[in-house]
Known about the structure:
Helices cover 29% and strands 23% of the residues. With 98 residues, the protein is of the alpha+beta class. It starts with a strand and ends in a 20-residue tail after the last helix.
Amino acid sequence: MTLYIDPPTWPGHGRLWSHLVSDVSYAELHAFAEALGVPRRAFERDHYDLPAHRYTDAVSAGALEVSSREVVRLLHGAGLRRRKGDFRGAPGAQPRSS
């Protein structure tokens, strides 16, 4: 199981965020996030949003540190990339509650 995380550089809600992704399946991604105690509501289309203070936890659990550009490349390569509006048909995807 290999998961990937980009640096916490994405601003939102007064914090910086990272994206946690799998290059294999959403099931793998959900299992990893669950083991970390990340709530399912943090899943958005094709990735989990993790606040900066959880970055080290994900890396310690085995997520590989990659650039944001690499996260997108991995998702495209695995056929798991889902853009806004592409929600329909995304296996295991659930709408994010606001």
